[in-house]
Amino acid sequence: MPDLSRVLDAAATLTAIVTVEGELVHWEGAWRPDAANWYDAIPEREHFAAREALSRAASGGEPVEVELNVKAGGGELRRVSWTLAAAGGSVVATGVDAVERDRVERDLHDLVDRDALTGLFDRRRFEAELERHVSEGRRYGMGGVLIVLDLNGFRSVNEEHGQRAGDRVLIAVARALANRLRDTDLLARIGADQFAVLLPRAKPPEAERVCQALEDAIPEEVHAPGGRRIEASVGFVPFTDTMNSVDEAMLAAHTAMYAVKAGQPRHFRRLRPL
């Protein structure tokens, strides 16, 4: 992904103007060095490499590349890949901080994987996590539970009060669901008014309790315009050794959820694999 690489490099770029004696005349970047001198900002064991690179760059000719640690605020060492080139009587040093680049990359990927409205995982990221869960289950033993939840009558909120009102309801639903789950559980918005949860290690009795807690949380914590009561239909399926794919798991959980939505008793919310 060359375009992404350019974005990441730009976000992690450091620029310094250094005199031949090592004085830092100018610095730009996400952080500042813990010194006003090029050599004071670099560990003593790397001074020879730093002096040689600076001297070669100052003499003109081709740019000089060197990797050096730089002391950031608080004394933290940051590994930086530098390119040095002469500019008048000084040297311009352009560096890419690997630590900062990795942080920006994580943030970008997290942003891509999140639903823009609720901040939850989106369907693509959630299904990738399910794929990982199923793959590990095939190796170490299948377990855990997939829950799918659908809001009842949500469309009328948008139709009667507008999309912004509907958005506020969805945000409140996401918050209510998250409040009932553990940090190890994965929560996602997988459709307009559908949410899904992966309980990685839960067994069916625990999943029943979680489903009930999620079902209860929405009318308790979510308040729609005009006093409309927001409720949800919840279904789940346990992962078993006979389950072959993520698509199969999603279909099974949806089937259980729609059975409840159609008015079946709550014990139908678990789809029991054949």
What does this structure look like?
There is one protein chain. The chain has 274 residues and is an alpha+beta fold. The protein has 2 domains: 2-103, Beta-Lactamase (2-Layer Sandwich); 113-269, Reverse transcriptase/Diguanylate cyclase domain (Alpha-Beta Plaits). The protein contains 8 helices and 9 strands. The protein has a 5-stranded antiparallel β-sheet. Strands 7-8-6-9 form a 4-stranded antiparallel β-sheet, sandwiched between helices. β1 (13-19) and β2 (24-28) form a beta hairpin. α6 (163-179) crosses α7 (204-221). The longest helix is centred in the middle third of the chain and has 18 residues, at 123-140. The protein is elongated.
Secondary structure blueprint with pairings:
Elements: H1 2-11, E1 13-19, E2 24-28, H2 47-58, E3 64-71, E4 77-87, E5 90-97, H3 98-112, H4 123-140, E6 145-152, H5 154-161, H6 163-179, E7 186-189, E8 194-199, H7 204-221, E9 231-238, H8 246-261
Antiparallel strand pairs: 1-2, 1-5, 3-4, 4-5, 6-8, 6-9, 7-8
Task: Quickly name the level 1 CATH class of the largest domain.
Answer: Alpha Beta
Q: How many helical stretches?
A: 8
Note poorly predicted spans: none
- Strand order, biggest sheet? 2-1-5-4-3
What share of the residues lie within helices?
40-55%
Number of strands: 9
- CATH homologous superfamily name of the largest domain? Reverse transcriptase/Diguanylate cyclase domain
Structural shape: elongated
Order of secondary-structure elements: HEEHEEEHHEHHEEHEH
The total domain count is 2
Second rung of CATH, namely the architecture of the largest domain: 2-Layer Sandwich
Could you tell me the CATH topology label of the largest domain. Answer: Alpha-Beta Plaits
User: What gyration radius follows from the Cα positions, in whole Å?
Assistant: 27 Å
